[in-house]
Amino acid sequence: MTRYARRGVHGQTVEALARRILGGDIPEGATLDLVALQNELDVSLTALRESLKVLAAKGMVDARQKRGTFVRARGDWNLLDADVLRWQFEGGRTTDADRSLLRNLAEVRAIIEPAAVRLAAERRTAADLAALDDALRAMGQNDHDAGHAVEADLAFHRALLNATHNELLERMEMVIESGLAHRDRIVHSSPHSENPVPAHRAVLDAVREQDPDAAEAAMRALLEQAGRDLERIDGDDETKGPGPQ
Q: So what's the pLDDT on residue 228?
């Protein structure tokens, strides 16, 4: 899947509209007032229409005679599109829809990554191991920088998918990256998350030893830890209750 290039007014307009739709500010089924949006976003009608074509290609909007341009039902949206996932999670807030999508992502990872790591254990090359070693080393550099921790985690999981040497599985990185990055930002910003290095090292050790069974077991343990971290933070948020309004 090709990512949408975020450039200029056109890119900004696409993302502004996408985030409003994904966040529910423009609800499913709503007919868009193009003139009002044009004035509000301070763009030309041509630029607005071109931006809507991008969202139409991702299943988010459509246009019909006598009805105009409208937001399609969520079931029609291409939620596996890398841009749609990124837009969902980069809105600066964690909504119920975000949390639901994170749970769905966890289920997808539980299906894909244990099977993928078995292939990685069988097919990994010296270059694959070097990439995994680099990512794990970066993960171990605890400088209390959540952004650094996110990038190191993404690099590790990206390297694992690449080590399968399966072109379609390698592309799955684009599907899970945005959601994984959002989950990581939540987890690594909390002082209550578990140290991720031992669980990742266990995966790498099994891949290095070319032991598919051990690699799968280690990956399942890693995913269980990831789930515990997120549940613990969700529980903390519920205990604190709503913040200032």
A: 82
Per-residue burial over 188-210, b = 16 or more CB atoms within 10 Å of its CB, e = otherwise:
beeeebeebeebbbbbbebbeee
DSSP code string of 139-177: HH---S-HHHHHHHHHHHHHHHHHHTT-HHHHHHHHHHH
For the chain, list residues with pLDDT below 70.
1-7, 91-95, 97, 142-146, 187-193, 233-245
DSSP calls for 36-79: HHHHHHT--HHHHHHHHHHHHHTTSEEEETTTEEEEPPGGGS-T
Residue type for position 33: D
Please report the pLDDT score of residue 240 as a whole number: 47
Instruction: Report helix, strand or coil for 92.
Output: coil
What letters, b where the CB count within 10 A reaches 16 and e where it falls short, cover 1-11?
A: eeebeeeeebe
Query: Cβ(93)–Cβ(23) under 8 Å?
Result: yes
Three-state DSSP class for residue 8: helix
Residue 236: predicted pLDDT: 53
- Is the separation of the CB atoms in 219 and 203 below 8 Å? yes
- Maximum pairwise Cα distance, the chain: 64
Beta bridge partners of 62: 70
The count of residues in the chain is: 245
Distance between terminal CA atoms of the chain?
Answer: 40
